[in-house]
Specification:
The structure is a single chain. By secondary structure, this protein is of the alpha/beta class. The chain has one domain: Rossmann fold (3-Layer(aba) Sandwich), CATH 3.40.50. The chain has three helices and ten strands; from the N terminus they run ββαβαβββαββββ. The chain has a six-stranded mixed β-sheet with strand order 5-4-3-6-7-8, sandwiched between helices. A four-stranded antiparallel β-sheet has the order 1-2-10-9. Helix 1 packs across helix 2. It is globular, with a radius of gyration of 16 Å.
Length: 175
């Protein structure tokens, strides 16, 4: 596929994504049965994933969002900026952070440290995509949708300078 002279190579199709989202929802429903967790989506990238995920849960839950920035184009800035904080009180709550992608690990490390300061009962991390070849993590990721190569990807909420979020599959971006 080519859009505006940018070539997109599909790496995960819509069917595979939806199947994996349902599996993740089942696992989370079993883990948090009768616990009413709060799912915190990391904006902007996770909005499609968290929407599909919570619609497939069989448990009651709450949803909130946090917005951070650590990228400019295809490159990390090396720092994480908090743009929008959560509005819910997570003290003594089961928190599930929902990420679109973990590549370097910088953002998720920042988020876990920040949320731990509010004394939640537990923090679980769910990511649709993980780049294991470049992730430098000091904490475990509870649920990983797919492991991918260290390529720059778009679609299913992931963007390149705010473009391509609307695509229903995940694509490797090639200029």
């Amino acid at each position: 596929m080519e859009i505006n002279k940018i070539k997109l190579i599909k790496i995960i199709d819509e069917t595979a994504i939806q199947s994996r989202v349902k599996e993740i929802a089942t696992e989370l429903s079993n883990k948090f049965d009768n616990k009413k967790p709060i799912f915190i989506g990391v904006l902007n990238g996770s909005f499609i994933f968290i929407s599909d995920l919570v619609r497939n849960l069989s448990i009651n839950c709450e949803v909130d969002f946090i917005k951070v920035s650590s990228y400019k184009g295809q490159n990390t800035t090396g720092t994480v900026k908090l743009l929008k904080d959560i509005s819910a009180d997570i003290t003594n709550r089961h928190v599930v952070i929902v990420e679109d992608i973990i590549d370097s690990g910088l953002t998720i490390e920042f988020l876990v440290k920040r949320l731990k300061g509010a004394s939640p009962q537990s923090i679980s991390i769910v990511t649709l995509l993980l780049k294991p070849d470049i992730a430098k993590l000091s904490l475990p990721i509870d649920i990983i949708g797919f492991e991918i190569a260290p390529d720059f990807v778009v679609g299913y909420g992931l963007d390149y300078d705010q473009d391509f979020r609307h695509l229903p599959a995940v694509y490797r971006l090639e200029k």
